[in-house]
Amino acid sequence: MNTTMKEGFNLAMMKGLKKWRLFSLLAALTIFLSGCGEEYLSTLTPAGQVGRDQFNLLLLSTAIMTLVVIVVVIIYVLALVKFRRKKVGENVIPKQVEGSHTLEVIWTVIPILLLIVLAIPTVIYTYKHADVSAMDHVDADGNKTAVTVNVTAKLYWWEFEYPDLGVVTAQELVVPTGEKVYFNLKAADVKHSFWIPAAGGKLDTNVENVNQFYLEFDKESAGLKDGVFYGKCAELCGPSHALMDFKVKTLNRTDFNAWVESAKTTEAVAEGDLATQGEEIFNTSCIACHATSAAGSAGGVGPNLAAFGDRNRVAGFMEHTEENLKNWINDPQSYKPGNLMPQPEQLNNGEKFSDEQLDALAEYLMGLSIEK
Amino acid sequence: MSSIAQKKGFGATLWDYLTTVDHKKIAVMYLIAGGLFFVIGGIEAMLIRIQLAKPDNDFVSAGLFNEIITMHGTTMIFLAAMPILFGFMNAVMPLQIGARDVAFPFLNSLGFWLFLFGGIFLNLSWFMGGAPDAGWTSYASLSLASPGHGIDFYAIGLQIAGAGTYIGGINFLVTIINMRAPGMTYMRMPLMTWTTFVASALILFAFPPLTIGLFFLILDRMFGGNFFDHTMGGNTIIWEHLFWIFGHPEVYILILPAFGIFSEIFAIFARKRLFGYSSMVFATVLIGFLGFMVWAHHMFTVGLGPTANAIFAVATMAIAVPTGMKIFNWLLTIWGGSIKVTVPMLYALAFIPSFVAGGVTGVMQGAAPLDYQLHDSYFIVAHFHYVIVGGVVLAILAALHLYWPLMFNQMLSEKLGKWTFWFFFIGFHMTFFIQHFLGLMGMPRRVFTFGADQGWDLFNLISSVGAFFMAAGVIILVVNIIITAVKNVPVGNDPWEDGRTLEWAIPQPVPFYNFKQTPLVRGLDTFWIEKQEGNKEGMTYAEPLSDIHMPNNSFIPFMMTVGLFIAGFGALYNGEKEWAVPVLVLGLAITVASMAVRSVKDDHGFHIHKEDLMNEKGGK
């Protein structure tokens, strides 16, 4: 081995060592951060490519910024320890230094370099995550290859329409795994913002224009705590902004296709006497706003209830029990202030629904399912 | 609190303050009014944290919570932070440049009263049907949909207060350009003056977009306009742009004076000239300039498209460079100095790590795709509290201790000051550090409650406990102020012993005409130079003792403001109450009549004669 080779070798070693250091810093960060939060909700446990890109950007920026903080803290602590008046002496007049060009150049150039390191992936990902060009690709038969969901945000619920599949649902988004799912986002009343933290960043639903982006989901949600990912409204939209949650069910492509088929064909049926009674009440009081068939298009006054029995939550945020459902129907304003569902008195001749009526309604609604 | 004021009756003192055009008295009024609003905003903050201390809490209702967060943000920015900083600018800047007052003393008074009455108008909403509830940003679709008069109070109140700020900003600009003492070149101006200058320039350019946005909102809500109603061809995104074209520079309007205050403190308590003075000035101007180029980073998720997002992302990152320059210059100022840890210095030292933490999270949010995750989550709440509390509020608390002897000729207790500091500092980090993680864990901001078992319960509780520490700190501060005011021990000029700039050279209490003779400024840190050369008086004079021309007090600014205040109610109830239009007209008539009186009546001010000046000994 001659000297140049040795030097080269050493250099490579050093480089490797440096890389290894950065890698270990990143690895430590990853472990530390992913310890935070729940898998179905946290941005720190990304569930798809978009979320993962953004998480990587988080790691990179955190690493760079940690470096800056460490440098500042070292200088700061040293200055504090070395130059306290007790140490320097009470009557010492320090040298009145004007400044230093060299230092100014150093702390201008190094930050610029660090920022360039961050700016490059930032710009690349900005374009990448806005690229919806494949949205309209069609196969040989003229069918769209990708799933597109039209999301309409309303006070305080979410409508999900699959325009190419002829299906509409509410509150629970169902998407296939392992492919890009495209979204058209719009608000029906005031501005909201569509956010599935585990899958990727948010995009606003504006009142005057449609926003488009895509998300990806790697795995089926069945294994998660509630069997779903959590979605949130991220823009203040009124009193019940905090309660404007939705859920995301991810299925593999085969199951997703089966779900779509079932959604298109399932008719609402009341099984048993109680449910039939419930259906009658529903048909006089509720059907004007709530559809019970998932086949169709967007534009419901109230959430589509075709899949109500499959849902994870009542009104988007309460545990899915008959008790909660009955409470909700009989006093929606106290549970979700400012929502647009009429109070029972407006629907039921000026009175609250009786216990019998509620039992029947609950029985009927809980029986509405497209997954069975 | 000067000895003169105590000898006067209460009525006479009140009349004196209602009519004063003296920048020092106006500064005191800004401080008191801003302090009051700070306490109100603080109480609102406590209510927020109590509500969020545990999941599914029902301490306040959903609608009330939105009113509280809206008023907390609006109050803290417009009615607490900015006015208090205006107070310090008013108190210090004219003295620093060797001026007898600001350029337009009458306007100075008008600016204050407009701010105060605008703030009162806004807060009256609590008692008149409900406060605004669309967030301090008041995004158009929600603010148009909001029932009641809350948003109307917001729009009109901020319009009145904003006019005051605008007038104040112009006044400071003209003052600094025209009223500097001989020898006070631009590159000898202390950093506090420089940052006042740049912040005022930002006000000059940033407030008109807000004014326009607010007028659109007023017209839309009260007079049937359709600027933001998309069903009538309007567009809500216009509001977002107008608001943030104002809103982002606003952040720098707040933080630049804070930088100025800390620059003074580091130099004084390290007994050392500010390191890299010219680059500090350059960085200040550059930050001010870039501040106008980045507003859309508040709108990354609006759907402006990748090109706009990429450009604004890179521009945002660029701001980190001049800000970093400042941090390192401060570090190098204390490096090699002789550091004395007084209360102001304690705040300044705490500011560096706190603000750096807030700054780096800002850069993270500048990375647009990452911001898609962070935006409108608790991460952003943590970030802006790190820069506003860790920067601006720490500066305000520091300046309160630093300039208290300058403004009142008494010293706040250092011991109690340290208690305040530690409570506030620990509470601040406890409250907000953990919120970064809440955001990353998927918690959106502006939620009135949150469901249990989403992994957020413990962190929210910790955050709420921290808020109580901060409150304890503020209570100790109030006690400190009361004790100090009651004791009233005069301390004289240069109480910190290492004052470097002109304001510390003036005898205490500061005479109402400030300088008997206009000083000659012989370099940066002119008082320091005089002291080093053994000049006992602390000043070299640029002119012989001669008559001083002073402005008369005036009640007209107060009346002009009262007119607008009354007119505000007329506009607010337009179309709803019969008396609305007459009241609107009456209010505007009062304002216009007051302006006419001001225009027609000659007011040449008065002269203090040379002989009287010679008889006075320094202070009094």
Short structural description:
With 372 residues, chain A is α+β, with helices and mostly antiparallel strands.
What does it look like?
- The complex is a heterodimer of chains A (372) and B (620).
- The N and C termini of chain A lie far apart (73 Å).
- Chain A has a 5-stranded mixed β-sheet with strand order 3-2-1-5-8. A 5-stranded mixed β-sheet of chain A has the order 4-10-9-6-7.
- Chain A folds into 2 domains: 3-89 and 98-129, no CATH class; 148-367, Immunoglobulin-like (Sandwich).
- Chain A has 10 helices and 12 strands.
- Chain A has helices at 3-34, 49-82, 85-88, 101-129, 253-265, 273-285, 322-330, 332-335, 344-347, 355-367; strands at residues 147-154, 157-162, 167-170, 172-176, 180-187, 192-196, 200-205, 211-216, 229-233, 246-251, 313-314, 318-319.
- In chain A, strand 1 and strand 2 form a beta hairpin.
- With 372 residues, chain A is an alpha+beta fold.
- Chain A is elongated.
- Chain B has 620 residues and is mainly α.
- Chain B has a single domain, classed as Cytochrome c oxidase-like, subunit I domain (Cytochrome C Oxidase, Chain A, Up-down Bundle), CATH 1.20.210.
- In chain B, 67% of the residues lie in helices and 2% in strands.
- Chain B contains 20 helices and 4 strands.
- Chain B has a two-stranded antiparallel ribbon with strand order 1-2. In chain B, strands 3-4 form a two-stranded antiparallel sheet.
- In chain B, 61% of the residues are buried.
- Classes of the chains: A alpha+beta (372), B mainly alpha (620).
- Are there runs of chain A of 5+ residues with pLDDT below 50, and where? none
Give the overall pLDDT of chain A as a whole number.
90
Query: What radius of gyration of chain A results from the CA coordinates?
Result: 28 Å
N-to-C SSE string of chain B, H for helix and E for strand = HHHHHHHHHHHHHHHHEHEEHHEH
Strand order of the largest sheet of chain B: 1-2
Percent of residues in helices of chain B: 55-70%
User: How can the largest sheet of chain B be summarized?
Assistant: 2 strands, antiparallel
Mean pLDDT of chain B: 94
Number of domains of chain A: 2
The CATH architecture of chain B comes to Up-down Bundle
* SS strand fraction of chain B: under 5%
Please tally the helical runs of chain A, counting DSSP H or I stretches of 4 or more residues: 10
Note the beta-strand portion of chain A. Answer: 15-25%
Secondary-structure content class of chain A:
alpha+beta
CATH class of the largest domain in chain A: Mainly Beta
Please write the string of helix (H) and strand (E) elements of chain A: HHHHEEEEEEEEEEHHEEHHHH
Family (chain B): Belongs to the heme-copper respiratory oxidase family.
EC number (chain B): 7.1.1.9
Domain Cytochrome oxidase subunit I profile (chain B): 9-522
Pfam families (chain B): COX1
